[in-house]
Amino acid sequence: MNLSKQVQIKEVGPRDGLQNEKKEIATEDKIEWINRMSESGLSYIEITSFVHPKWIPQLKDAVEVAKSIERKDGVTYAALVPNMKGLERAIEADVDEVSIFMSASESHNKNNINKSISETYPILREVVDEAKKAGKSVRGYVSTVFGCPYEGNVDEHQAIDVCDNLFNMGIDELSIGDTIGVANPVQVERVLSEFEKHFSKDKIALHFHDTRGMALANTVVALQLGYHIFDSALGGLGGCPYAKGASGNVATDDLAHMLQQMGLEQSIDLNKLQEAAQFIESKLDQPLPSKQMGISRRL
Amino acid sequence: MNLSKQVQIKEVGPRDGLQNEKKEIATEDKIEWINRMSESGLSYIEITSFVHPKWIPQLKDAVEVAKSIERKDGVTYAALVPNMKGLERAIEADVDEVSIFMSASESHNKNNINKSISETYPILREVVDEAKKAGKSVRGYVSTVFGCPYEGNVDEHQAIDVCDNLFNMGIDELSIGDTIGVANPVQVERVLSEFEKHFSKDKIALHFHDTRGMALANTVVALQLGYHIFDSALGGLGGCPYAKGASGNVATDDLAHMLQQMGLEQSIDLNKLQEAAQFIESKLDQPLPSKQMGISRRL
Predict the structure, then answer these.
(1) Probe site for chain B from A216, A252, A274 (most B CB atoms < 10 A)
(2) What is the ipTM of this complex?
(3) Quick one: average pLDDT of A223-228?
(4) Is A3 a member of any domain?
């Protein structure tokens, strides 16, 4: 296997994980958790979302979290911003990078943002421009690239068109998402082979959900094609198999373990990572779904 | 991806799954479950083990199960036999195929069979000879090919040597096992690339455990190399993430779903398969760990 040695994991648990957990975690526990993850060797943590608390009450303490965590050298602390108001708060809280988001499919975009795809661009452009003026790098999430809950299949050329428009705004990196966890390895190979005709692999991250158990298989196929940036959530947070409507981010601990076994990742301390997972699990009402956590409970 | 279209799943849940579940399932429920799996389109089911009840009391009803299930045309019904006594019972119960087993590593073989590898061969040879005389095809399980709980790494040439000896006895197919679920995709590629220098891919099955979540990723790598026979247990039976010492067979429902999505499997009715999984889950004390079962519980 001819694989890139420059693999990077981007931890999205404090945002994508917690926003899908019913239970609200105390602010001090979030801070402690993020600090522990910083100490584990992770180099990128999306710490929160500056979304209105009406939509995601679990993340209403975004400013306090961002201001109170210990910033470790070499770690990028990012946060999601849905609009200009969110961006203002993110800049005030001095995160390193902001993330914006939209969908590759019309109906998911409409359901999620209440706007058509073409109506979404100017709003995002304004946010990107302001973020850049404030010296922030910008990441974009493109949802439903591998399937849409309303439309089913999503044409990869439509996804590429959305990505093209986002890169043209000056966005630094796009994370393309298998939002509902339906991507399979053959499809991932087809879609990514098309993507590589248009974009640098250094600027495309893969955001796999493990709803159907294919996330690590899809990761291997992406690695074989030379992609090397992967999003995940510690412990599989937000995706407990026994919770209704769970979205199921691939688990950082399972991903990091596999990458280390494959000889592709050396910077993460898996024991510290597991301790950080155990810490947040102790604040939840149910066990985390990752395999590594399953093993640690059996020991 | 250049993949074989002749993929076959071999269901080992009634043997490898149930022997790792604490709870004893009623004989009539096992029979009903196996009949339901036959109806789902599975073409191979290992229905039990003719091992002494002292060792695996969960399977003490082996003869009754084998004699009472409905045999469906086109389905191979197999059973594990540890020795001549087991073979006699298997022949009496008229299974289609018998499986024997040993390990690729000395210490696991010693712990499991209480004999050295070289002491094991003549015993197995006698079983194979008798089975062949009775007109049965013979399958062999080779454990710890991808790692041993006592020795760690297992040299692939040692595993190949064991396989060579077993094939020389006239065994029809060998299932090489990642007994403790440690195989990673890079290792699978290395080991299988070595195996293909010695053996036909039509005679080597992969027996992955999903203890660390890598089973489907390993499956994809094996598929890419042209391997096309895979063992699994419905629902991930025997591998509940919350049970101590769980071995974690990859789940048939997750495997079949992925293979169908990849365009490689058409004969299994996933709905019937899921109903069969729900049936056996209803007889257990805890939910089955497969992703497909997680989804079905959320619907």
Answers:
(1) A216
(2) 0.96
(3) 97
(4) no
CATH number of the domain where residue B266 is located = 3.20.20.70
CB-CB: which of B189, B217, B295 is closest to A216?
Answer: B217
**What are the pLDDT digits (tens) for B101-117?**
999 999 999 999 999 99
Q: What is the model's pLDDT at position B246?
A: 47
Q: Using CA coordinates, name the residue in chain B closest to A260.
A: B184
**Residue B242 CB neighbours (<10 A):** 12
Q: What's the confidence (pLDDT) of residue A242? A: 53
Give me the mean pLDDT over the B264-273 stretch: 96
3-state secondary structure chain A: CCCCCCCEEEECHHHHHHHHCCCCCCHHHHHHHHHHHHHCCCCEEEEEECCCCCCCHHHCCHHHHHHHCCCCCCCEEEEECCCHHHHHHHHHCCCCEEEEEEECCHHHHHHHHCCCHHHHHHHHHHHHHHHHHCCCEEEEEEECCCCECCCECCCHHHHHHHHHHHHHCCCCEEEEEECCCCCCHHHHHHHHHHHCCCCCCCCEEEEEECCCCCHHHHHHHHHHCCCCEEEEEHHHCCCCCCCCCCCCECEHHHHHHHHHHCCCCCCCCHHHHHHHHHHHHCCCCCCCCCHHHHHHHHC
Cα(B22)–Cα(B30) distance, rounded to whole angstroms?
15
* Within-domain flag for B218: yes
The number of domains in chain A is 1
Task: Give the Cα separation of B90 and B80 in Å (integer).
Answer: 8
Domain containing A14 equals 8-298
Place of tokens 């018998």: B98
Q: How does residue A164 score in pLDDT terms, banded at 50, 70 and 90?
A: very high
pLDDT band at residue B247, thresholds of 50, 70 and 90? Answer: low
Residue B150 lies in a domain: yes
Note the pLDDT tens digit of each residue in A3-50: 877 899 999 999 999 988 888 999 999 999 999 999 999 999 999 999
A95 within domain boundaries: yes
Residue A21 pLDDT: 84
Contacts of A245 in chain B (CB under 8 A): 298
Gap between the Cα atoms of B92 and B51, Å rounded: 14
CA distances to A116, B50, B172 from B102, in Å = 61, 15, 15
CA distance A241 to chain B (A): 5
- The nearest CA of chain A is from the CA of B202 a distance in Å of 22
pLDDT given at position A247: 59
